[in-house]
Structure formats: C-alpha cells, structure tokens
Amino acid sequence: MNISVFEEGQIWMNWYEQNSMDMIWQVQDKGNLWLGSLIAAQKIEQLQEQNIKAVITIAEGTKLKYPETLIPEHLVINAQDVESYDIKQHFDECIEFIERNINYGSVLVHCMAGVSRSASIVIAFLMKINRWNMEKAYKHAHSKRKQVSPNYGFLKQLRDFEYDLKLND
Description:
The protein is built from 7 helices and 5 strands, in the order αββααββαβααα. The chain has helices at residues 5-18, 38-42, 44-49, 91-101, 117-130, 134-144, 152-164, and strands spanning 21-26, 32-36, 52-58, 73-77, 106-110. It has a 5-stranded mixed beta sheet with strand order 1-2-5-3-4. α4 crosses α5 (117-130), α5 packs across α6 and α5 packs parallel to α7 (152-164). It is globular. One of its GO terms (cellular component) is cytoplasm.
C-alpha cells in the first residue's frame, strides 16, 4: 500500500487528536489527574466533560489562556523539551499545585505532545504522593498513556528526585 506523505501526516494527526489526553490517577470522591497534549488543552468541551478545573501548561510559547469561570487555576511554565533543561526545578511547585487543586476538580498537565515534559511532572507527582520509585511511577503512567517517554535528561532528573525522596532504599 502506497500512501503519500500528506496522507501519512493526516493519519498521524487523526490518531494524535483521538489520543490527546489520558487519565493517569483517580482520587476517590475528588478529581482525577489527566496527562495530555496541547490539543487536549484546547478542547474546551472535553475539559468541561472531565470536570477539569486546573491546568498546568509546561511548554514554550503556547499563549494558552482560559476564562476563570472555566479553568480557575492555570499554572504556566515555559520549559524546553531538551535534555539539558532543568525540569526538576518545577517538581515541587507542580506537585503542590496538583495536590491543592485536585480537591476541587480534575487537573490536566500538558505540554505540546503529552510525551516528555508533562509526563515528567506527572511521574514526579506519582513518586512523591505514592512513595513510588521512578520505575514504578513511570510504568504506571506509561500503562495509562502509551506515549509517555521523557527525554534522557528528564529521566536522569527523575532518578535524582527519587534519591532526594529517599525512595531508592
């Protein structure tokens, strides 16, 4: 079967749009933690359907803004998806944001593709909240969203975070 580059791109975009966000963690009688892409963050109807009340945008230059009546809490972090970027500097702030807001509704953490930056934040959250080592948190996130694949530099920082949390004993 021969398909053009354009057709291949369309197939990829259709798949990508259909898989724009996944639920990673459920909190009994509270909100859920979602991991997704910029496409997910722009789907207002989907955000409302999932009771998303808070969003973490961890990407460069999205210019994404929400009406406060829709998303009362929006944390924006301009972060690069390069191995040398210090994503660990944002772990505590993002974890606190998720903990605070998940009591009032669901939380979406997104970057451009929902693969590396946002996945790293979600993995760090799972590590701290559940006292899971990096491998267990990664496997859990990956089981819920197959695209999860932090870059090598972020994986190293998650290992350092594991050490900081004393989860490697």
